[in-house]
Amino acid sequence: MNDLTNLPDPSRLIHGLRDTGYDFNTAAADIVDNSIAAEAQNVNIRIDLHADGRKFVLFGDDGKGMDEAGLFAAMRYGAPARTNLQSLGKFGLGLKTASSSICLRFTLISRNNPDAPLSKLAWDLEHVQTENRWEMLKEPITKSEEQDFDELCGETGTLLIWSKCDRMLSKSYTEPAGTAERKAVTSRVKKLREHLALVFHRFLDHAETRYRNVRISVDGEAVSHWNPFYPQRSLQALPEAARVFEIELEDGSIEQATMNAWLLPHAKEMTNEENERYAKISSRGQGFYIYREGRLIHHGGWLGVFRSDDPHYSLLRVEFDFGHKLDDAFRVDVKKSRILFDPALEEALKERLASVHREADQRYRRKKKQLSADLTIDHSGANNSIAGAKFTKKPSVESVDPAAQEAVVSNNRGAGIRIHVPVQGNVDPASVYVEAVTDITSGRLWEPALRSTGTSGFSTGVRLNKHHDFYQKIYLKAAASGYAVEGMDLLLWAFSAAEQNNTDHELQPIFEDIRQEISGNLEKLLRDTPLPTETELDELSGDTAVDP
Prior knowledge:
The protein has helices at residues 10-16, 24-37, 68-74, 94-100, 125-131, 143-152, 179-199, 201-204, 272-279, 327-330, 343-365, 380-388, 469-478, 482-501, 508-525, 534-544, and strands spanning 42-49, 55-61, 105-111, 119-124, 157-163, 215-218, 221-222, 235-236, 244-248, 254-263, 287-292, 295-299, 316-322, 396-401, 406-411, 414-420, 423-424, 434-437, 446-451, 459-465.
């Protein structure tokens, strides 16, 4: 009887698996996946450069941890499938292939009970090559490793140590741990923080309720989330009906994927600081942002649906979500950094995104007149009405501090109340009470202000957010009717006056929250409302727009 067992060569295979396509950032993200799957609340990463040039990367989490048998299974190439299929882990290879892509030795230390001893195992690729067999190392735990576990994990959890990091940096340095190498490590740390801020932004964002919140730190500095869609300023441009895809699997079952399209503000409508911090507009940033179970696995590029090298679409980012049951349908790779669309799905995506794709081009080229600085709406009716209303209830302004954006007022709450509020002097008399502006970045439709023409005291004003959907979709369409615009202006000014006349330092955050909620609800109500047509905008620019 012939034995057809044909085992792979240990040395060649374990070294060959180093080249599965990871870079430092994607490898580190794969390790963080394991920590999140282990229900960690905190993930701590530390990168050490020793004086002799040796480099170490440590990943510690306070998750469930493992006993000795669990540790042995986790270190197996092709580890057993997790019982939770929604886990961010998938193939049982990520820990090993991600680690070996960066280092020649990786050590795993863990425990799942505070009273249990630490368990430790290591893969050393040089040892496997020398012995030419699949043999791990079981060595005593050092005092330094115990201290690292206490610092980075806690009572339970898992510590992973990458050593012999021959691929952490792209080149070797003649002076070990010299200025050039230290600078390269600092740059690597910075880019890692940025990568984790994007890939795990849904888990890092405390306002995100769909996913469990996790804290990630790199070298002691917490990673802040970065949402690539900048929802405070961007338009959700896809109708509700076009956001859900039903995908049939091979067994005949139906699973859903969801999509949303975001049109970011033009770079010229933001300060450089705002763009660099929140939007980060670039040609490489356009395209699909694809999430599997809330974790970003692909960002940027159009995956064959549209051309990916045209800067005219750099303001369009498409959010695409699917769950683990669609892994096979999208052919997710081992690194969880690439998927493939079925040709039929490509066509469906192209059809649903066609109009948004064109709108992104128009917005980039600033063809839409609502993005032009020359297009204005006449708010003079409201300004004149407010100026002529002698008996409206307004707070008494005792003093203002424009530098601190503070004022002392007397209102229904009492005398001498200090409030934080936009304070503006030398305002155009025609817009002293109501003005539409482009510098509100909070996402709110309006904010109260104290405004003065410089010839009299400060009066209650209202600043309207030109970027808000309500302004773009309702105000602009109503501009042909002066009474409609004036009515909305007066309503929002009345809200502002009521807020200033009934607020103090304790109530002010409550009023801000109310404005935020109203503004957010209006965004949701208007998701399926189209922007004004070219005809409507032509009419506005020709007949109803006036210089303020």
